[in-house]
Amino acid sequence: MTHPFLDLPPLSAARFASIEDRVARLMSTEQDVVIMQGEALLPLEGAIRGCAGPGTTALNVITGPYGQTFGNWLRDCGATVHDLAVPFHTAVTAEQVREALAAHPETDFVSLVHAEAATGNTNPVTEIGAVVREHGALFYLDAVASIGAEPVLPDAWGVDLCVIGAQKAMGGPAGVSAVSVSERAWARMAANPGAPRRSYLSLLDWKERWIDGGRTTLLHAPAQLEMLALEACVERIEAAGLDTVMARHRSAAAATRAGAPALGGGLEPFVTESTAAAPVATTLRTPSGVIASELVARALAAEPALPLAAGGGALAKEMIRVNHYGPDASRESVAACLAALAAALRASGVTTDPEAAHRAATEAWPEN
Ligand SMILES: *Cc1c(COP(=O)(O)O)cnc(C)c1O
Asked: How far is the CA of 40 from the centre of ligand 1 (A)?
């Protein structure tokens, strides 16, 4: 008997190219889209190392932990880096980006995370993109946590390098990722003597040996399982409709933001303005005296499959993450998370009103 995972034929170059085209349609882009054979950190790092060098001046926007990582890579490449950090409970504004670019007019690279699942915020890329384009810098965007949850439009926004991964709102596997690359970005990489070449991190290898060759010969054997899973996940989004999938994430965020405070246990949205709250995941602030990681551990002990986590690092004390993405962008998942948080709060001696929370969450879900 053939095994469904183990006895797969090699994935053909034509199939690989057709999956790339489907991902490009999902991103509404005419730019080259390169699928990378690894989790999203691979193209995120590859794109920075491809573009940045000692001659680069970068504006690195930090609205969460990934921004910090990008700054480290940029410095490692020898770039001069100006960080623009905003508190994790807010979003950066286009005006702040404009001021930072005015203060450092030599800036030729801007890195930004669209939405951060780790902090629950999302940044106004339409407005920021216009500012970056006017300045002329190359624009690098991490859209891993936004694709599938909110519009991601690299062409309309003037994004030169837009990285996505399938493991968040796309509801797919974590082992493959993709990046759209503009002509300007390819030119920057080709002119960069430090850009990775003949390397797993190299985007240029894919340009020169895959794209320029008419996408007939793959660089190495593709990871069939991940590629087939990526294809299936894009197919599922197409069948449901991208707008429907995004609406589900928006609704899940609205319901969680409304439901958690209605519990009456002192939980509040961590991201204060709803316009800055990411549709992909909702972060909550615990009341003083309640340790977030302990509360989450108690909730997960009762129901291990719930999409709940505590914040990373120092945030573990005060932040709860409700990861209502992919299949968990559903009324059932949000309701189960709220009920579990209510039970965990009760067990810590905090009075809650789970019915009020359920009502508030249900009313906040737009298409009742
Ligand atoms: C989830 C995420 C990634 C991918 O990182 P993982 O650690 O594999 O989850 C990258 N960027 C952002 C903004 C993310 O939210």
From this structure: 7
